[in-house]
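ENTRY TYPE: protein
WANTED: fold as tokens:
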Amino acid sequence: MEGIELISFQIISSVGSARSSYIEAIQLAKQNKIVEARKMIKEGENFFTEGHHAHAQLIQQEASGEPTSFSLILIHAEDQLMSAEAFKIIATEFIDVYEKIK
């Protein structure tokens, strides 16, 4: 596996781990483990950054004139990237709410 497929799988893997961290952060906040929840958000951010760097690599290739061929796997990677970003926002909001409630 090479090229766009490899980069797509890198994105999917990294942002999937990020999303899992964000979901775990919500679960920790529900247990009133706010400090641990915020640590999981940071861990998720690290995973997300890896995926974002892989995504940026595709953007740089296209910007330099190398055409990007679209495939279902690339579209899935893009979807997962956006989904993980949304989960971070939601998880952060949940943690803040749980912190205020407790």
